[in-house]
Task: inverse folding
């Protein structure tokens, strides 16, 4: 309050001080509220940005096609192959398709096969169409970022003396697969026959087929082969339980190496790659 001389008295001064104190507290609270709101906003914004960044990453699809005869039949991909490739390409979609049948020569898959004398005149059915049907169902219209063909076969051809045409048929099968899927960038891994029949007594063309498998794999920049020596049961063409687990790991390791070596994991599907398997 003002005195008669125009100065504040004690009561007026007290009221003014209380008012200033209240106003100061209100300003401080307002600053605190604004600071808290800003902090919350930044946290939420940061979370949204992080989610957006994760969602913006294109999820790749890696297709692995496994086929062949008995030693592929007995290989369980879920034991070692699939876990290995899933770990290597964490966050991507992994599709594994397997179609195999025991005691079958490669001519059951390759349509333009070259027949040996032992096969001429035989009624050869087609296992390739069955494989491709399973592949198309599995991918369900998706375009895989990478495709790798894993092949474990050759015992029947070694026994039927078809080793002289095996390399041509294997190259043809790989080319056929690339053509049908319109993807010339398909990788392939071949399981070389074990050392079971290296004396060529039971299977006369055993070593011929082994040589052909290595030749085809090493002649293609997208090819590789795995060693199966020592994985088999003693004096048996088939492998031990542990042997199949190791085989799956080796197939996976070579598949992963091919994908990374050819640097196609982060590229669009290539339809003009020179390695066409023909």
Result:
């Amino acid at each position: 309050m003002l005195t008669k001389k125009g100065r504040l008295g004690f009561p007026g001064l007290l009221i003014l001080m209380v008012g200033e104190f209240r106003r100061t507290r209100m300003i401080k609270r307002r600053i605190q509220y604004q600071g808290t709101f800003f902090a919350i906003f930044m946290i939420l914004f940061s979370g949204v940005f992080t989610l957006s960044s994760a969602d913006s990453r294109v999820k790749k699809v890696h297709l692995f096609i496994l086929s062949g005869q008995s030693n592929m039949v007995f290989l369980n991909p879920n034991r070692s192959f699939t876990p290995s490739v899933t770990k290597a390409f964490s966050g991507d979609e992994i599709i594994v398709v397997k179609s195999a049948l025991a005691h079958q020569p490669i001519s059951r898959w390759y349509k333009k096969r070259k027949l040996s004398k032992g096969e001429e005149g035989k009624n050869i059915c087609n296992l390739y169409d069955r494989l491709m049907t399973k592949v198309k169902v599995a991918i369900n219209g998706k375009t895989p970022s990478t495709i790798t063909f894993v092949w474990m076969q050759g015992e029947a051809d070694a026994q039927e003396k078809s080793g002289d045409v095996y390399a041509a048929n294997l190259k043809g099968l790989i080319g056929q697969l690339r053509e049908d899927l319109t993807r010339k960038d398909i990788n392939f891994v071949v399981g070389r026959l074990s050392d079971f029949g290296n004396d060529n007594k039971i299977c006369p063309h055993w070593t011929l087929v082994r040589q052909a498998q290595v030749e085809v794999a090493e002649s293609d920049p997208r090819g590789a082969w795995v060693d199966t020596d020592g994985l088999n049961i003693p004096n048996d063409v088939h492998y031990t339980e542990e042997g199949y687990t190791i085989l799956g790991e080796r197939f996976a390791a070579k598949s992963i190496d091919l994908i990374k070596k050819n640097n196609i994991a982060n590229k669009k599907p290539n339809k003009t790659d020179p390695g066409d398997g023909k």
Summary: The longest helix spans residues 10-56.
